[in-house]
Design goal:
The chain is an all-alpha fold and about 160 residues long. The protein has one domain (about 5-40, about 55-145). The chain contains four helices and no strands. Helix 2 packs antiparallel against helix 3 and helix 3 (about 95-120) runs antiparallel to helix 4 (about 125-145). The longest helix has 30 residues, at about 60-90. It is elongated, with a radius of gyration of 18 Å. It binds protoporphyrin IX containing FE (HEM). Protoporphyrin IX containing FE binds next to helix 1, helix 2, helix 3 and helix 4.
């Protein structure tokens, strides 16, 4: 195993941050389902019970709202990884492939999250939401492993 080059450290932080944050979001999602909190914000989306910041006066609302808010942490890492890969590591074809897959997956997942809520927890949509969550996590894990073999960015030396 090759140690991480300093020039790829930022990519490593974003790629690993994507895996860890997505795993945490999946745990929160599981808790949303098992605690019966899926409609904690009502059928309201993107607002929660019609408000940007709801009163948070019942546990179902707090659990559902935390799932939605934590999505921003996941988006920060996945979008950050995508920007880095598309701008600095375009020649790493597999990395571009898995990064793009997780980026597209994120947006489809947000759409499915919206449909889950607005369809009053249609079980087929809920299953698709769970399935895609697993696929996104798999793409992100492959990505972290690919980052290990990324060649450092050539540094332009002053003449
Ligand atoms: C990358 C983003 C996301 C991931 C990885 C994710 C993951 C999950 C997972 C694993 C579950 C549990 C599913 C189950 O056990 O059947 C879940 C539930 C849920 N998610 Fe997400 N989610 C994401 C984004 C969103 C967004 C943006 C919303 C917007 C409203 C949302 C709304 C819900 C709801 C309402 C449930 C509960 C469904 C039910 O109780 O039947 N999710 N999520």
């Amino acid at each position: 195993m090759r140690p991480f080059e300093p020039s790829t450290r930022l990519l490593w932080v974003f790629a690993l941050g994507s895996v860890i944050s997505t795993y945490i979001l999946i745990l929160i999602g599981g808790y949303v389902t098992t605690s019966d909190s899926g409609l904690g914000c009502g059928e309201s989306w993107p607002l929660c019970s019609g408000a940007v910041l709801p009163a948070l006066n019942n546990s179902a609302q707090i659990i559902e709202f935390s799932h939605r808010i934590f999505n921003f942490v996941v988006a920060f890492f996945i979008i950050g990884t995508a920007i880095l890969v598309w701008t600095r590591y375009r020649r790493e074809k597999n990395l571009v492939l898995f990064t793009t897959a997780s980026f597209v997956g994120l947006f489809v997942q947000v759409f499915l999250g919206m449909v889950t809520v607005t369809s009053a927890l249609n079980p087929i949509v809920g299953d698709a939401h769970l399935g895609l969550a697993s696929a996104i996590l798999a793409f992100l894990v492959v990505n972290v492993m690919l980052v290990r073999d990324v060649r450092p960015i050539p540094v332009a030396l002053p003449r």
